[in-house]
Design a protein that fits this description.
By secondary structure, the protein is an alpha+beta fold. It contains 6 helices and 7 strands. Helix 1 crosses helix 6 and helix 2 crosses helix 6.
């Protein structure tokens, strides 16, 4: 998640470290990142799945629009540009020019692997003032055999960032930008 400093939302959108806040939580192996009022998370959950999440607000989010945007982002012409844009030197060394191997690590069905859940809070949200958070979850299925091999050579870390988190954030941002309210 710390790779998000300076380019969290995408090409041309830059934030200094004081604008991108990190917060640790025991149920997340990586820090939560809050930018522009939305908190993003990434974690490994039983199944096994990589779960990407972001908090959403009633007045700006439509699940079906997001699912359509997510499907569009995962067209290879789009996701390959995201991978190329955000791959660092270490990712490029690991991938050796073969970005399609990232797609073989994860499976996603935008119809069944995407949901919005409500989570009760003990303290009201700073952003919404509510005691309930709405959280968008996208679960990327993993093949346990490939998971073991890919984690040894760093491919899993590159894949979780470049193939899961970056496209997820791009689809979420797109769904907000195209919402009827213009949020």
């Amino acid at each position: 998640m710390k790779r998000f400093h300076g380019s969290f939302l995408g090409d041309g959108v830059r934030f200094g470290e004081n604008k991108v806040q990190f917060r640790g939580r025991p149920d997340f192996g990586t820090p939560l990142v809050t930018v522009l009022g939305h908190t993003y998370g990434l974690r490994l959950v039983p199944g096994p799945f990589v779960e990407a999440s972001v908090n959403v607000y009633d007045d700006e989010f439509e699940l079906n629009r997001f699912k359509d945007d997510l499907r569009g982002i995962y067209a290879w012409s789009h996701v390959s540009r995201i991978i190329a844009n955000f791959a660092g030197p270490e990712d490029e060394r690991i991938l050796g020019g073969d970005t399609k191997q990232l797609a073989s690590l994860f499976r996603l069905d935008a119809g069944s692997d995407v949901e919005v859940v409500e989570k009760r809070k003990a303290v009201a949200s700073i952003v919404s003032g509510r005691l309930v958070d709405r959280v968008l979850l996208v679960r990327y299925g993993l093949d346990e055999n490939q998971l073991g091999d890919s984690s040894k050579n760093g491919l899993f870390v590159s894949g979780a960032y470049l193939y899961c988190l970056r496209p997820f954030a791009a689809a979420y941002r797109k769904s907000l930008a195209t919402s009827p309210s213009g949020a």
